[in-house]
Amino acid sequence: MRLACIDIGTLTCRLLIGEVDGHGPVKTIYSGRKILRLGEGVDQTKRLDPEAMTRVIEALREWQRVIEQHDVGAFTAVATSAVREARNREEFLQRVEREAGVEVEVIDGEEEARRTLLGLRSGLPENVQDILGLDIGGGSTELIVSREGQEAQTISLDIGVVRLSERVLKSDPPSATEIQEAERLIHSSTQEALTTLGNVSGLTFVGTAGTITSLAAIAQGLTTYDPQRIHNFTLTLDTVKRIEHTVRTRTKADRIGIPGLEPGREEVIAAGTLILRCIMEDLHQNQCLVSEYGLREGVLVNLARQASAGFRFRIIL
């Protein structure tokens, strides 16, 4: 069935229209993404900025017209860290429904991880079964342990590229003291997560979302983003360290134009690279299998399963 979803993230909003049967890989019909920074300032104020809300609403209205053109059977929109933490989230949700005609489901960190896992599994190589998944977002980072035949373990860390940039990495470029403080926060969060996740040895480490796919593009020097060259690319820890040194020693302005770096991500790529490097060190992972599949695909797989089970959807278009 042909389905559509919008993922309203802290940093990036994403649209995916695809065909999915609930079990196999998602066949992409249309994909869109915009860096809109909805979560800008939320870590300090606990409120969504009106201008940031407007940016998202304008994108949703544009994407509604795209969805209308693709004969979609069902549609859903989800929001993650920034919206679930904002004190004025109801104001945002009401504006979105009133001005863009979209009902938004706000999902918690555990549900975000569960749906991300659905997406990851739909795109894994056939020989990969037991995985340690990582999704670095704008406001939070999800870790997922999934072994064949066992219930998955998920944990959401209170760190993300926007949150870490605003909270700690305030200089341009970040100072040595700020880097040390960021490392301390990341290591502390990861070690706490390990007390819940337990032994993660023997698992294939799989990473998804914008930071990790951007690093895969930078590692290959891609001047044009090519999903086929990103998906199932292997990032080594040494490569991550090399890119980290490059981005954290440059100003935001000087990062613009780095081959493979998505425009608009220059402000947060240092934070994202730090998060990945520290987590790989703490989890003793020397390689990260990069996945183009993640939360968006998982939301579509989840939607397909609901539709197959007879769940009735009200589509506002």
Topology, pairings included?
Blueprint lengths: L1 E7 L3 E8 L7 E9 L6 H4 L4 H19 L5 E6 L1 H5 L3 H12 L3 E3 L2 H14 L8 E6 L4 E6 L6 E5 L3 H7 L8 H22 L6 E5 L1 H11 L6 H4 L3 E3 H12 L3 H4 L13 H14 L4 E5 L3 H14 L9
The name of the CATH architecture of the largest domain is 2-Layer Sandwich
Report low-confidence residues grouped into runs of 5 or more.
Answer: 312-317
**Alpha carbon gap, first and last residue:** 18 Å
Give the percentage of residues in beta strands.
15-25%
| Major beta-sheet overview | 6 strands, mixed
What does this entry look like structurally?
There is one protein chain. By secondary structure, this protein is of the alpha/beta class. It has two domains: 2-109 and 296-308, 2-Layer Sandwich (Nucleotidyltransferase, domain 5); 124-292, 2-Layer Sandwich (Nucleotidyltransferase, domain 5). Helix content is 45%, strand content 20%. The chain contains 13 helices and eleven strands. A six-stranded mixed β-sheet has the order 8-7-6-9-11-10, with helices on both faces. α2 packs parallel to α4 (89-100) and α5 crosses α13. The longest helix has 22 residues, at 176-197.
